[in-house]
Structures are given as structure tokens and as C-alpha cells.
């Protein structure tokens, strides 16, 4: 029998977010033992061992609810960034914070400015709130911040910028970001999602947003995550930094216990493990360099970028490449959901994973190994 109950109008065209395929699902579906996942920009070193030892100790407390606002982790993040604790909010991944920002600030028909190939979750979440999403074309696969600023009006609630961007891997300089912040209406939030900032920090012109820009601009929100350089994607923790007044709205509407207890404790320790972060960045950058050269030799047009993944135009359609690699136990990310049928996104793995990828690519593309 057909069901007469309709969801909200703005939900009717929504399709579920399509995450990278998991290792377990590929093993199940294709009966493969060894599967390499280079689809979600995780850390090939695994998690910080120091964070994991705290995680294991926390298991004894798992009968108890965590502290709702993650106060210990908030304090640790605040100290790490030389901010007050009320400038920090902790979320179930930075993804939760994207959602909370949209839920807290976007009324139906408010404008939200995003970039053409900017991180897809921004436009998806804004649309869920009934926002009018203005998609500004990229220039050289990079956010065009000047045009994005010009598109913002008194009706605009949020300008979303991923810096560096997923999936294109490019970043905007401090000068460009400053110009955007200067031009944006004061009634509009500028959200800088810096999920991959550690991989871009070696470039002198990469913005020093925290505490620098944050202290200067009251409408700036910076998002960070433990999922990438800290190797803790499975724990689901991210944080937002902004003016306390803005964050107080997110705090009011987040789930009461949004971050679980072992995750709060492990992430507090992860922040102290600077050596692990350095190793992770070094591995990603050297792997990125080597993989770019090899992919170019195989006919890929690899975009220069500043992340732990590569964005490249493939010699064969992206989905075809994805399927052919999957059969050989390698998971990459096709980008059809962005309307990019010729491109793929490939996370930089460890040496063995990158070797497996290249071997599989040579087979698929018919290159002599
Ligand atoms: C730009 C960007 N922002 C946010 C996220 C979400 O990260 P989290 O795992 O913290 O929810 C991702 C994940 O891929 C990302 O690429």
C-alpha cells in the first residue's frame, strides 16, 4: 500500500550521501582477501598509538555517559590553538558541525554560497534546510573567492569554503581569504573547512586562520577534523572554532552526548602527539609526489594540490576505472556525484598500498608491467 505521509518539500529530491566503499563490503561482495582502500583520505599510518592507548584505557568507563560538551577535549583544543574554551565546539566529525551550522542559521530561501566543485556536503546540507544554493564556478579547479564574495548579499547566510578543497585538492591563499572576509556582509558566516590544513601548511601563503584570522573576523568559523592527519576517522570527531556567540547556537542544538567517551579522551591525547602528525604529513607529501609522477606516466592529468589525496583526469572514464580497480581489490573514488565523469580522487596510501594501486592500474590500462 502506498504511504501518504510526505517528508518536508525540500527533502523530496535528496539522495543519500554516497561514502567511499568500505574494505569489508568489497571483501564480502567480491570474495577478495586483500583490499586496499584509497577512497576516503584516511591515514595510512593508522591511528596515533598514543591516542589508542588512551582509547583502550577508556573502555573501563564505557558504562557511563560521556560529558556532553566534551569539556576536557574543548580545553585541550583551546590550549592547542591559544584560544578560550568558549571559542571551541566539538562535533561527531566535522560533518556534524556542517549540519549544525546549516540547522542553526539557514531559513528556507536564505542564500548559501558554495563553489562548483567545493566539498559536496555543504550544498547537500544547505539544501536540506531549504536554502537557495548559489554555486560559483571554479577557476583552475580552485575556489573563486572574489566571485563568491560578489555573489553574497544581505540574503546570504553562509559562504562555505573548503581550504584545501575536497575533491580538487587546491587551496586559496591568505590574501584571497582575507579579501573574501573583508567583502562578505557581516550578517553572513564564512565557514573555512580546514580538514586537510596540515598537508598545506608548508606553503607560505596558506592562511594562518587560527588564531590569526579568527581573532580579526567575528563572522569566521573554522572547522577541523581528527579524521585525516590524526588517523581517527572511525572515532568521528571534529571541532569548530569561532566567536562564542555563534558557537552557543550550535551547542544548543547538538545531540546531548554527541561525542562518545573514548573518542573524547583519545582525541585529547592525539592533539599532544605532534611527532605522529609530522610523520603522517611527511608520508603523505612524499607519497603524493611519487604517485603523481607515476600517474602522469600512465596518462593521468594530475592536478597540483596540497592534500593527502590526488585529483586527476583519468585516461578512461572515472567510473570504469573505479569498477576495474575494484575487481583487483583497490578502492578509489569516482566523482560522478560532482558531475566529473572523467576524474577520480585517489588517497595517498603507504608504499605497499601505492604499489598495489600502480600494479592494478597498469593491468587495467594495458601497460606492460
Ligand atoms: C573537506 C572536508 N570536510 C569535512 C569532512 C568530514 O570529516 P569528518 O570525518 O570530520 O566528518 C571531510 C571528509 O572527507 C572533508 O573532506
Give the topology, please.
Blueprint: H1 23-30, E1 36-37, H2 49-58, H3 71-81, E2 88-91, H4 94-105, E3 111-115, H5 120-128, E4 132-136, H6 145-151, E5 156-162, H7 174-183, E6 189-193, H8 197-200, H9 209-216, E7 220-225, E8 238-241, H10 244-253, H11 261-270, H12 274-297, E9 301-302, E10 309-313, H13 318-327, E11 330-331, E12 333-335, E13 340-347, H14 351-365
Helix pairs in contact: 2-11, 3-11, 4-5, 6-7
The chain binds pyridoxal-5'-phosphate.
Distance between the termini: 57 Å
Instruction: Specify the biggest β-sheet.
Output: 7 strands, mixed
Number of helices: 14
Determine Rg (CA atoms, Å): 21 Å
CATH superfamily of the largest domain: Type I PLP-dependent aspartate aminotransferase-like (Major domain)
Task: Write down the secondary-structure element order.
Answer: HEHHEHEHEHEHEHHEEHHHEEHEEEH
Outline, from the CA principal axes?
Answer: globular
The CATH class assignment of the largest domain is: Alpha Beta
Strand order of the largest sheet: 2-8-7-6-5-3-4
The count of strands amounts to 13
CATH architecture tag of the largest domain:
3-Layer(aba) Sandwich
What is the domain tally?
2
Average pLDDT number: 96
Say what the CATH topology of the largest domain is. Answer: Aspartate Aminotransferase, domain 2
Which small-molecule species are bound to the chains here? pyridoxal-5'-phosphate
Helix content: 40-55%
Structural class: alpha/beta
Strand content: 15-25%
Unreliable spans: none
Amino acid at each position: 500500500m502506498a504511504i501518504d505521509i510526505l517528508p518536508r518539500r525540500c527533502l523530496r529530491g535528496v539522495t543519500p550521501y554516497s561514502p567511499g566503499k568500505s574494505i569489508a563490503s568489497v571483501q564480502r561482495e567480491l570474495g577478495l582477501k586483500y583490499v586496499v582502500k584509497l577512497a576516503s583520505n584516511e591515514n595510512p599510518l593508522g591511528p596515533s598509538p598514543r591516542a589508542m592507548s588512551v582509547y583502550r584505557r577508556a573502555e573501563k568507563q564505557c558504562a557511563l555517559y560521556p560529558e556532553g560538551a566534551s569539556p576536557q577535549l574543548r580545553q585541550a583544543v583551546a590550549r592547542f590553538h591559544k584560544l578560550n574554551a568558549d571559542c571551541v565546539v566539538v562535533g561527531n566529525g566535522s560533518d556534524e558541525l556542517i549540519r549544525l551550522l546549516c540547522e542553526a542559521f539557514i531559513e528556507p530561501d536564505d542564500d548559501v554560497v558554495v563553489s562548483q566543485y567545493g566539498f559536496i556536503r555543504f550544498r547537500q546540507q544547505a539544501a536540506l534546510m531549504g536554502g537557495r544554493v548559489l554555486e560559483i564556478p571554479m577557476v583552475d579547479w580552485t575556489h573563486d573567492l572574489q566571485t563568491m564574495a560578489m555573489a553574497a548579499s544581505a540574503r546570504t547566510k553562509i559562504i562555505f569554503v573548503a581550504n584545501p578543497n575536497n575533491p580538487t585538492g587546491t587551496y586559496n591563499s591568505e590574501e584571497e581569504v582575507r579579501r573574501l572576509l573583508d567583502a562578505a556582509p557581516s550578517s553572513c558566516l564564512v565557514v573555512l573547512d580546514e580538514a586537510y590544513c596540515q598537508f598545506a601548511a608548508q606553503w607560505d601563503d596558506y592562511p594562518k586562520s587560527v588564531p590569526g584570522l579568527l581573532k580579526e573576523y567575528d563572522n569566521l568559523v573554522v572547522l577541523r577534523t581528527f579524521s585525516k592527519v590524526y588517523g581517527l576517522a572511525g572515532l568521528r570527531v571534529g571541532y569548530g572554532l569561532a566567536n562564542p556567540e555563534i558557537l552557543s547556537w550550535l551547542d544548543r542544538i547538538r545531540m546531548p552526548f554527541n561525542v562518545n567517551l573514548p573518542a573524547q579522551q583519545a582525541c585529547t591525547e592525539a592533539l599532544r602527539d605532534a611527532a605522529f602528525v609530522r610523520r603522517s604529513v611527511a608520508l603523505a607529501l612524499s607519497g603524493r609526489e611519487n604517485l603523481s609522477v607515476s600517474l602522469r606516466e600512465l596518462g593521468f592529468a594530475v592536478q597540483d594540490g596540497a592534500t593527502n589525496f590526488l585529483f586527476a583526469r583519468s585516461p578512461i572514464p572515472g567510473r570504469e576505472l573505479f569498477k576495474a580497480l575494484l575487481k583487483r581489490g583497490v578502492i578509489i573514488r569516482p566523482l560522478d556525484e560532482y558531475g566529473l565523469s572523467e576524474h577520480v580522487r585517489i588517497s595517498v596510501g603507504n608504499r605497499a598500498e601505492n604499489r598495489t594501486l600502480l600494479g592494478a592500474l597498469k593491468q587495467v590500462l594495458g601497460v606492460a608491467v
